[in-house]
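Data card: per-record layout.
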Amino acid sequence: MLLILLSLLAFWALNTQAADAADWRSRSIYQVLTDRFARADGSTTATCNTGDRAYCGGSWNGIANQLSYIKNMGFTAIWISPITLNLQGSTGDGTSYHGYWQQNMNAVNTPFGSSNDLKSLISAVHAQDMYIMVDVVVNHCGWIGDDSSVDFSKFAPLNKESDYHPYCSTDYSNQTSVEQCWEGDETVTLPDFKTEDSSVASTLYSWAANLVSEYNIDGLRLDSAAHVDAAFWPEFNAAVGVYCLGEVFDDRSGYVCNYQNGLDGVLNYPSYYNITDAFESTSGDMAGLARNINTMKSTCKDTTLLGSFSENHDVPRFAQKNPDMNAAMNVLAYTILADGIPIVYQGQEQHYNSEGGSSDPYNREALWLSGFNTEATLYTTTAKLNQIRNHALSVDGSYLTYQNWPIYQDTTTVAMRKGSDGKAVITVLSNKGSNGASYTQNIPNTGLDGGAAVTEILSCDTLTAGSDGSLTVPMANGLPRVYYLTSLLSSSGVCGN
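The structure for this 497-residue chain is written out next.
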């Protein structure tokens, strides 16, 4: 009996151990928009018109049924939409299918499923040795109507008018206004929590800690982090005891990096803008991309804990800006192999292009309409990129904390290196596009020994380093090249090893 009890206690400890920032460094995240990923009925034809801004039927059970689709791309974590009960019914701005118009933070959003469905999903994720990240909103609630019509008693747990800032329209040039004024509009207004109030803050700390404990959550993505009193975040991060990733939607490195003083990590929006600028055309700003790598390292507390992304539900699809498939491959290579925790937004691997518009709501397409195609070019590319990252971090104990650096740059090329001498991943990126000519490009500073044999992991072609360790890389059609020491690929699964 004692042995059984000890076994149960060990199992409980293993499955309730908080995942801190260091644990998350090794993870690669697939972002799921819960209503738009998979339906419980398994349909791949159910209509979902993004322009309607309506619930389309995606659910937690639907996600659970399609975990292999995510796992087989090499992802080791999933980020899902906010789980709290949102305002119900249609508005002039559509429905709350996205999850950001919460009203009762103590209940789950029933269109996504029941509390037990959510717990079953998280258990299934953990059974696949993946982490779960839940999007949370600690900035506001949602109300149908303008500020004068709000009935604060309908919200929970913060149900008094004094728990909220008085209404004001946000002046984005004034940080106090950004933190204290309301988001939304007169159709759906978003009453703003008074997070600088100690009682409000304490309530939110307790709520978030209980949420993490109740559902065994491994990490939190924090919506509208820059709209919350900055002094609120350090104690929040400590209270929940798991990795926290803040959304600071801004291109200024100093402004964004400042939030890492109170949070484990932030989404790397400055790099997002540079990635887009570099690859959206054949005359893109590659110098800016290389410069940004160094700027973020010198400005942020720790670039290895940032969220590295190139698409999400709030910005245009890359394919809408540039439909070139090979350009998209370069974008994914940078996203996954640069510093930080990679994040790929559902549909990016299917080359979705925000059909019908550019950004919200058109970039929130139903993934099931792709038929969950595992042969798609960007699906297989993503799998290969995750595979080499996962292998590199298992071989090189310093890979995760080794800061990526640009080892070569010209007007159409950026080469970067991440990892110790002889164990580094060497990535060569091009914005020449599919019509780009064939040529060779010398890449120095690889950390390789002279004569070392390397494998290009996307094509499985091999190459030998020069006497000085440099690589003479065959470039063609604007494709990215990713090199790794061949002798270290044994048992990796990469290129048949």
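Known properties of this structure: The longest strand covers residues 102-108. Residues 1-16 have pLDDT under 50 and may be disordered.

See the next section for split statistics.
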